[in-house]
Write a structure and sequence with these properties.
329 residues, alpha/beta, 434 Repressor (Amino-terminal Domain), Rossmann fold, six-stranded parallel beta sheet, four-stranded parallel beta sheet, 12 helices
């Protein structure tokens, strides 16, 4: 089926293409009756604007790209919904692509977004280093990062991960726990991929424990972290809290403890990180670190659009966090 263009509408209505364009784009310089006639013809013919052609003229596509690890973790789904909402309110269409924490896939999708001439990209990178940053700079496309950080060349929006874990440890200490099982499986990828967030949180753990020398700790990085936790619980006779660097880990831990017949928090405490929305349905309610991830999504979209428009945005934007105290600790 032939695509209906403004030229076809002009021929049918007996006017110039310029007149059609004025009517379709609600610009002045056209009689009301002529405007109504053109709009009616466009509707009856099923006319759709040629956005690709218009983008070549304007030098912009009114599209954004956002690159995430996945959407299995609700934290990313929540962030995307907020990002898309702001982008849509400014007239932008959003391409969502998932790297699945695969460095080659991430680069492939960045190239695909550039080939589609997106006006800007929001990126949670799994790659890092000078070669990767050079690749991004050569695209000449505004790029902001969230989650894992690159260099100051790429404005970054996230929380202070070190401070958040420090606050979590302090909260655990106030509760009287004597031992912490620190669950962070991504740390096993150190030196192989960008794990800036897990590294910052681990640095926060080390810093906080210096202020609490009476609290011992064990770091668990195994893929089979649930089994590792149960093995550690068999060895520890001190009052133990399990501090997970993601609510997703914490939910798996809670389930395994319940299956094993252990009482949370009387036998062992559990704390998560992210405050994902599904925690409203968990029993016992999970104590966690909250940082209003929707706010990150909104700020990310707003800052990216402002940078596309030529404005200077801060190199780092820190979103506040807080401890969400519930009954699992």
């Amino acid at each position: 089926m032939q695509k209906i263009t403004s030229k076809h509408i002009a021929e049918i209505c007996g006017v110039t293409r310029g007149t059609v364009d004025r009517a379709l784009n609600n610009r002045p310089g056209i009689k009301p009756a002529t405007r109504e006639k053109i709009l009616k013809a466009a509707e009856e013919l099923g006319y759709r604007p040629d956005y690709l052609g218009q983008s070549l003229v304007r030098g912009e596509t009114r599209t954004l790209g956002i690159v995430m690890f996945d959407v299995h973790n609700r934290i990313f789904a929540q962030l995307f919904h907020a990002f898309e909402e702001v982008a849509r309110s400014h007239g932008y269409f959003v391409y969502l692509v998932l790297s699945h924490k695969d460095q080659a896939v991430e680069i492939e999708y960045i190239h695909n977004l550039i080939d589609r001439r997106v006006d800007g990209i929001a990126l949670n990178p799994i790659n890092e280093g000078a070669a990767f940053e050079s690749l991004l700079q050569k695209t000449r496309t505004p790029i902001l990062t969230f989650g894992n950080e690159l260099s100051a060349h790429f404005p970054h929006i996230w929380i202070d991960d070190q401070a958040a874990i420090q606050d979590a440890v302090n909260h655990i200490a106030v509760k009287g726990y004597q031992h912490i099982l620190y669950v962070s499986p991504p740390l096993r990828f150190k030196g192989r991929e960008n794990i800036h967030v897990p590294e910052q949180r681990y640095a926060g753990l080390q810093s906080a424990l210096q202020q609490h020398p009476d609290i011992s700790h064990t770091v668990i990085t195994s893929k089979d972290y649930v089994d590792a936790i149960h093995a550690e619980l068999q060895k520890s006779f001190r009052r133990t809290a399990i501090l997970c660097t993601s609510d997703i880990f914490a939910l798996e831990v809670l389930k395994s403890l319940k299956d094993a017949g252990m009482d949370v928090p009387h036998e062992v405490g559990v704390m998560g990180f992210d405050n994902i929305d599904m925690l409203n349905y968990i029993d016992p309610p999970l104590t966690t670190v909250d940082y209003q991830v929707e706010d990150i999504g909104r700020r990310l979209a707003d800052s990216l659009i402002r940078r596309i428009q030529g404005e200077v945005v801060p190199s780092r934007t820190i979103v506040t966090h807080s401890i969400m105290e519930r009954s699992s600790l």
